[in-house]
Amino acid sequence: MRVDWFPLWLSLEVAGVATLISLALGLWIAWLLANREFPGRDALDAAAMLPLALPPTVLGYYLLVVIGRSSWIGQAWEAVTGSPLVFTWKAAVIASTLHAIPLMIKSSRAALESVDLACERAARSLGASEWRLFWRISLPLARRPIAAAAVLAFARSLGDFGATLMVAGDIPHRTQTAAIAIFDAVESGDTLTARVLVIVISILTAAVVLVANRLERRRVAR
Amino acid sequence: MLRATIAKRFAPGPDSAGFSLSVEFEAPAGVTALYGPSGSGKTLTLDSVAGFSAPDSGRILLNDRILFDSGANVHLPPRDRQCGYVFQHDALFPHMTVRANLAFAASRLPRLERHRRIAELLDRFRIADLAGRYPHELSGGQKQRASIARSLIAKPDVLLLDEPATGLDAVLRAELHSIILEIRELLAIPILLVTHNPEECFALANQVLVYSAGAILHRGSPLDLLRNPGSVEAARLLGDFNIYEAEVLSLDPGRQTSRIRLLDTEIEGPHLRGCFLGDRVTLCARPEELQIATKPGGNRVRADLLRVTERTQGVRADFGSELIVDTSRAGWADLKDAPGWWIEIPAATLRQVATSKLSAYRT
Lengths: 222, 363
Prior knowledge:
The complex is a heterodimer. By secondary structure, chain A is mainly alpha-helical. Chain A has eleven helices and no strands. Chain A is globular and about 65 Å long. Chain B is of the alpha+beta class. Chain B has ten helices and 22 strands. In chain B, a hairpin with a 5-residue loop joins strand 19 (314-318) and strand 20 (324-327). In chain B, helix 4 packs parallel to helix 5 (170-186). Chain B is globular. The A-B interface holds A 116, 118-119, 121-129, 132, 136-137, 140-141, 220-222 and B 50-52, 77-81, 83-85, 87-89, 91-95, 104-105, 107-108, 134, 136, 150-151, 153-154.
């Protein structure tokens, strides 16, 4: 009996893309929450943490409502690309991103807020725009905890089950990620596939956590 | 010239008593020292000028450029204010070399001028050899020099120094002072220096603003403040003043003198403004202006020695009851074995800092 490696590659791909998106989007939201006072800031803060607290199936249901074929986002997507968004690997990316982004926002916000205020003020009084301040001062100074958060976000994306199942389904060789494949394998009594995938995912996740811990531990020396 | 009128209130909270700042001052080219205890609003003033804190009301003008005006709703962001700010703890960017720190500040200069300007400042602040080092590889004094150099790169219109000597030892502090004096000579811009060290005020400042609880209590040249601290509080803040309560016994406006009872002794006093017989006045005198005598005489009060402390410039003899006298070591050597001491308080050394009207007690 041969082990099907497709779910693992798909998972890595989906988690990779989801991590990149949650890094970009998460950093932006984290920066907004850390630096700006605006109406609705508390609401955004709460909304950003919601995916962490909601059951994954509830999250998946909301996603179906928002990006499903009858929603305006889903219809717009279909009109532009010619194919639906739900039940594709892209939907899995969206679910994973949502699953990973609260962690990204929380950690990056703490990292950005821990940057020495005097350094940020110095940069501002030296004529730096907020954009330049972010790229040249805040981000480099907070890069280690942010990288650690990104690595953990990757691990979380890799493990998403409920939300992905709801919006991307369980279509072998199309949307079946490793977490879902393990469930399927156990259900159908394919213990070999289940064990191999469990071991590989465990090793991968352990490695990722190790890297994250290292990044967090090492102080910013320069 | 910097002209500022700043008012800002912080409402009392669960863990703060609330604070309100209300100051108005002009700072011409040269060093203006903001002197006062911690929490008196000095740094808040600096932050308002730099744009880090928006006053509730007021107006800040720098060379006729409006930085802030509550009436016209103008509040320039810090990057457009042309203020050089030197922070208490250098605030160099830790992930950049000294040169990169300076280059960051020079980004708005034309490319050709940028390199010339960086080289010039590295040279002037004697940090050219350290240009390739990171801040954590520098000593405290080197960091502060690099930080000042960085703040001057973009040719600011005002230089704001927030207790730049914090954490520096005496040698480095002296070096920092000479750098500040050099900048004062070289650049005709206002320099606001926040300090709570009176020596720093007197060594560097052209003008001192004495801060207390969010207001400017007194202002003037350092010498003016020494001659006339103006109020009991300012005298206390400036330190080193002996402060006396005295009763007015007689007044002689013709000869510009008076007779007063001070420490239970009748002595000649200075010309007292706005006083009547029986009023109580508060007078102050500096320790170096009092003299120790071994015999009674005019304007001398009997004193018992409490302790003598060594100081860098001589000795300080404390006779209790606000009779603290600074004298030279040689002078004290001649006096210390005397059977008794009298302190001479020359009338001219006594400055009137407050008056309580007798009428106030009567009504």
